[in-house]
Design goal:
13 helices; single chain; MetI-like fold
Length: about 325
């Protein structure tokens, strides 16, 4: 045994292990370079998208004043007498996203609580993937489901509901973002340390009291982050609102009416109705920059909230 130890030391001292160590260092250096290149590609892609939007948006604002873009109450850039009030598209986007959040937030939170606190391991193993299947359904399927099933179902119940309306689009949009909110909220709730639950039970609290007063406050930052990400997904959704909500730019908060969102307008102009490099075509870049700004603010708020209210456990 002693001889084997001595021989190992002799091999180490003789330098026979140095090639292996050198090869390991080279492989780590290569892996570091490759991963760094992947990170730089993602950053460069984001920067390219931003710059392409900025340049075309500047060209648009050279012909249309920004105050007019932000304060006009009509959006008719393709008409003979064009109006460029983006607030109309923002209102339609806000209306459908608000309805979606009202649907997805309570359903997603209740699903997350059930999966994390009440469901058995076997039920959770099957039910969570089944819930996440909703995220794999194509948006066009959701859109036609809202138009051909949800709207005819609601029209006898809601007087004045138009064929294309914000209500049906918002309801189905809420179902589309439900997996995002439910899955991320469930992960945040499941990550709460078990000793907090045991301490609450030791003080005589029931399971629902523990969930309400201990678990949910401890996982609040993750729950809010999931809701913000769901809203960002709803704001950027295209086909559902294009098919179900219509393409009628109208400044209204009536969910029974047809509205047009920012993404739906981008789709409309991108179909080839406006000549390239015309002012009408440049509107999609101005609207896209506005949409990018809204989603950026949502992500910044999510990042700030998570870092401000995140609970750290050791």
């Amino acid at each position: 045994m002693r001889d084997s130890v001595v021989s190992s030391k002799q091999v180490a001292d003789s330098g026979l292990w140095r090639p292996k160590r050198s090869l390991s260092r080279w492989s780590e250096w290569i892996v570091k370079i490759v991963f760094g290149m992947f990170a730089l590609i993602s950053i460069a892609t984001t920067a390219g998208i931003i710059f392409s939007l900025i340049f075309e948006t500047i060209e648009f604002f050279r012909e249309v004043p920004m105050w007019r873009f932000l304060t006009d109450t009509q959006w008719t850039p393709l008409f003979t007498n064009p109006q460029y009030g983006v607030i109309v598209l923002i209102c339609g986007t806000f209306l459908t996203s608000a309805i979606a959040l009202l649907v997805a937030m309570p359903l997603g939170l209740m699903a997350a609580i059930y999966l994390s606190e009440y469901a058995s391991f076997r039920v959770r193993r099957w039910l969570k993937p089944a819930l996440e299947i909703l995220a794999g359904i194509p948006s066009v399927v959701y859109g036609y489901f809202a138009l051909l099933f949800i709207t005819p179902l609601l029209q006898p119940l809601i007087p004045g509901l138009q064929t294309f309306n914000a209500l049906s689009a918002g309801l189905i949009l809420g179902i589309a973002i439900l997996p995002t909110i439910a899955s991320l909220s469930e992960d945040a709730i499941y990550a709460v340390p078990q000793n907090l639950r045991q301490g609450s039970y030791a003080l005589g609290a029931m399971r629902w009291e523990t969930v309400q007063n201990v678990v949910i406050p401890a996982a609040l930052s993750g729950i809010v982050a999931s809701c913000v990400l769901g809203v960002a997904r709803a704001v950027g959704e295209t086909l559902i609102v294009t098919i179900a909500a219509g393409q009628n730019p109208r400044l209204t908060l009536d969910p029974r009416s047809s509205v047009q969102t920012m993404t739906a307008f981008i789709v409309q102009v991108s179909q080839g109705d406006a000549p390239t490099q015309s002012l009408e075509f440049k509107t999609i870049f101005a609207v896209g920059m506005t949409l990018f700004g809204i989603t950026l603010v949502l992500n910044i708020f999510s990042f700030w909230f998570v870092n401000r209210f995140r609970e750290k456990y050791e």
